[in-house]
Amino acid sequence: MHFYFFFTFSCNESGLYELEEATDDTSTTPDPKPRGSIVMLGDSVFALSGDIAKELKLLSGKEYPHYYIVGAEMKGTKDSFGGTESDLPNQYKRAKAEHAPIHTIIFDGGANDIILTAYGQCKAAPNPENLDMKTLCRPFFEEAVEEVTTGLSALLKTMREDGVQHVIYQGYYRSTNPDFDDASDFGMQALKAVIDEHQEAFQSPKSLSFIDPRPHFNGKEAEYIISDRIHPSAAGSKVLANLIWNILLEKGIETAP
Questions:
Q1: Does residue 30 form part of some domain?
Q2: How many domains does one find in the chain?
Q3: 164 vs 114: CA distance, rounded Å
Q4: What is the pLDDT of residues 216-228, one digit of tens each?
Q5: Which pTM was predicted?
Q6: What is the DSSP string of 57-83?
Q7: Other beta carbons within 10 Å of 183
Q8: Burial of 130 by CB count in 10 Å (0-12 exposed, 13-18 middle, 19+ buried)?
């Protein structure tokens, strides 16, 4: 905190100057490095349109600092989207450097490890038996999910050790690309298992929350997912934002304006 003292002088009858008033005023000197308590990390579900953050701003009246990046992965595979600098651990490091101490983290992550890496490897793999894509890709997806869960577990441990009080992990809805159906379901099962393993370490007053959007998107994919069959539409983003907002209210992290 900075204190600035402003003095007013007046001249008396003897020609001497007297001190009339001294006040401290910090209203005109904002902290040059604002500290944020709620920070968002993640991939293009958040980053492509930015609609989830926009909806959260409407709900909360606040703009949460964000570090999500299109193409971000849970692990740091080098790729055309920024490589290791765009992965979730590095997003978190940058957030800590600029906004510590962080009170609450909202994030997703892991889908690109499957879509960008595992699925690409699967499509390039030989297929002499002419297997369907689900069967051919299953081993690649399983390996990617194992790496994602390992990365998620390590990241949650780091957040807890850093004193983050509340963590909200947003999982994934089912893509309308049928090749990803199985990966979505067993991936979400594996991610939920990691969250469950860390629940004890985030006991009250801390909290660790897992959002499963699948029931909310089921049967409404045409409305909630855009034509690329992966990313949420404006309507889908509003649903996701409200799922996050409900947890922020439930855990007492935010209050309704």
A1: no
A2: 1
A3: 28
A4: 999 999 999 999 9
A5: 0.83
A6: HHHHS----B---TT--SS----TT-G
A7: 26
A8: exposed
Smallest CA-to-CA distance from 99 within 163, 28, 49, 179 is with: 163
Residue 29 burial class via C-beta count within 10 angstroms: exposed 0-12, middle 13-18, buried 19 and up: exposed
| CATH code for the domain in which residue 80 is found | 3.40.50.1110
Distance CA 203, CA 50 (A): 31
Q: Report d(CA 159, CA 103) in Å as an integer.
A: 10
* Structural domain of 93: 35-250
For residue 23, what are the β-bridge partners?
Answer: 6
Our CA dihedral for 186, 192, 196, 202, rounded to 10 degrees, sits at 160
Asked if residue 127 belongs to a domain, the reply is yes
The answer to whether the beta carbons of residues 226 and 233 sit under 8 Å apart is yes
Q: Has residue 4 been placed in a domain?
A: no
Q: Give the Cβ contact number of residue 16 at 10 Å.
A: 9
Q: What is the pLDDT of residues 83-131, one digit of tens each?
A: 466 799 999 999 999 999 999 999 999 999 988 788 889 989 999 999 9
